[in-house]
Amino acid sequence: MENLDVTVLRALRDWRAAGKRALLATVVRTWGSSPRPTGSIMALCEDGSVVGSVSGGCIEDDLIHRFTPAYAGKSGAGHEIPVGPPSFVKYGVTADEAHRFGLPCGGTLELLLEYDPDPAILAELVTALEAGRLMRRVVRLADGQVRLEEAGAPEELELDEARLANTFGPEYRMLLIGAGQLTEYLATMALFCGFAVTVCDPREEYRGAWSVPGVKLTPDMPDDVVTAFRADRRSCVVALTHDPKLDDLALLEALRTDAFYVGAIGSRRNNASRHERMREHFELTDAELARLRGPIGIYVGSKTPPEIAVSIMAEIIAVKNGVTLPRDMEVAQAKNLRGVPGDPSSAEVCAT
């Protein structure tokens, strides 16, 4: 599964290129609790097709009901997707509306609706995103004219009296070292979370059993793959082989990048040994090693590969979203507090 914004924009581009009328809805303001953050987008085609989301579903249904001929008979009025400059619409202003649209108590959101976006501009934007470029889409509110700019860094949505500026980035990327069973579960979860996933394993016996479609699998050495991967602030690197010959050099290269998450599987004892090796053989400082996460995941008492993958994916998403987890959710801290013995078996090596 690819980045949701790219999916929405690609569908909208295709509808408009085929001559279909369509609108783009963007969440521009929220008050109180809201189902989706500002900047979230949804595309609606004249036939009622919807891609993306601005709520849990009820607001999407209302937009379909208001703007597509397929629902005109139910409403008693021949509503069609209008033309002209963008317009604003609010949902959840009253308690009754919040209940009607399934918004949380006190939740209100405001949408900007753009009618029949220019297919050529959409095609240019999608092409740039597919090429891995970070783009800012600036909409002039007076007439809906759109300007595209390459962005230097991800930015929050900006809205004033004259324009809306929303930044769209390429997919988040995940590089996994090792093609074992745990990697299969983690890669599958990452795909559904919108990550583009690359798996590296020079060991033929592991690559031969790989069975997750949609993942790029490479046999090259991990440190070379990390270098070629060119990890940025939308990338994470996770070592899962338990083999220092494969994991350590990959982690060393990853720590030199801007990756938002760099981590390795293993027990508390293995993690401490890894830090010692990197200090002794690669002269990494404590400050540099502070970026290296391990044991990775959040403590959920997991023992099986799918449970461990859930705990790792949860931590990656938290870091990606800028959420600081309580210390007692860290694997090492939680086990220390609970007096969990270290490394009594191979299960403890993997368990998180």
UniProtKB/TrEMBL annotation:
Domain XdhC Rossmann: 174-316
InterPro entries for this protein: MoCofactor_Util/Proc, XdhC_CoxI, XdhC_Rossmann_dom
Native organism: Ramlibacter tataouinensis
Domain XdhC- CoxI stretches: 15-68
The protein's name in its UniProt record: Cytochrome oxidase I
Pfam families on file: XdhC_C, XdhC_CoxI
